[in-house]
Specification:
- With about 120 residues, this protein is mainly alpha-helical.
- It has one domain (about 1-120).
- About 85% of the residues lie in helices and about 0% in strands.
- The protein contains five helices and no strands.
């Protein structure tokens, strides 16, 4: 019972960090959620899938707050939503088929590329 409480405590802290990152940066909570969820005992594939699940509530809350504050651009919504939907479907299908090592390698490369872009291409 005590071990379960410890795991749940870690997961609550994970949730706070993910929610903060997602709301502050308009995304990226999932990038933080995956490694943290793995540290709380989830397998890599479960951590990737669970990260998507836990991002949903904070994304909806962030959307409501951003809409209320007028911080949006609806002109990009439809084309981007179509692309995200297609990519999400493809990614979910691939997650079930790719070896865990491949998923982790691709995830790490994407994180590194995102970091480099933020540091050097956001002039």
């Amino acid at each position: 019972m005590n071990g379960e409480k410890t795991q749940n405590g870690k997961r609550i802290v994970c949730g706070v960090a993910v929610g903060l990152a997602n709301s502050l940066f308009g995304g990226g909570g999932g990038m933080l959620a995956v490694p943290i969820l793995e540290k709380t005992g989830l397998s890599p594939k479960r951590a990737h899938a669970t990260a998507i699940l836990v991002i949903l509530p904070i994304s909806l809350l962030s959307l409501a707050l951003y809409l209320f504050r007028g911080l949006y651009d609806f002109s990009v919504f439809v084309p981007t939503a179509l692309g995200v939907t297609a990519g999400g479907e493809l990614g979910a299908a691939l997650l079930g088929k790719l070896p865990t090592k491949t998923v982790n390698a691709v995830f790490a490369v994407l994180q590194a590329v995102a970091g480099v872009c933020l540091l050097f291409l956001n002039g």
